[in-house]
Amino acid sequence: MTVGVAVFGTVLAINGNFSGGGTPSSQVVNSQPVETPKTGDGLQADSLQFASEAFGNDKAPATADVPVGWKSTQTGTRPKYVDPTGVWQVRFDVRGSDESPADLVAARERSIEEKSLKVISRDGGTLIYTYVDETRGPRMGLSTFRPTADGEGTVAEITVGGRPQDEAGLRAVLQRATDTLQISGAGDTRPN
Length: 192
Prior knowledge:
Layout lengths: L1 H14 L34 E7 L4 E7 L3 E4 L5 E3 L6 E5 L7 H11 L3 E7 L4 E8 L3 E11 L6 E9 L4 H14 L1 E2 L9
Antiparallel strand pairs: 1-2, 2-10, 3-4, 4-5, 5-9, 6-7, 7-8, 8-9
């Protein structure tokens, strides 16, 4: 009860109405915290900064640019980098494959067991799709499979994920990762 009286007294003091009578102050005191407004709706491509990250293994060391601040949650030949909020991610698979990018796009499409899967595009070795995650809600994925020099195999897969409203930013992350991906190594025997 003492706390309630103290709070009530403080509100009266702030409003300048000690006796309960007279003209109440016109000043309104909001006791609710004000939410910080959000800037933009979705991952904005022009707000991203990138840094080169090294991964892979002794046989096939690799590097690619990822957004600054995204941390690796997996290492080796299949690293995944996630933003601090856990909303966005970029994943690499540099093990290579003897299957063509088109075959791997079809295989990936068949393997996705998510609710409300909708394939937006499957052109040029890239699969773009949306689905609904039970805990995170609507999601979007873009998976690209980079071809070997002869086009018959696949050198690497890069997948980005986020929400549908993040599409522009996700495309920028995917493009930058694709453009900067470098895999080297004298003992490289890919595709496997």
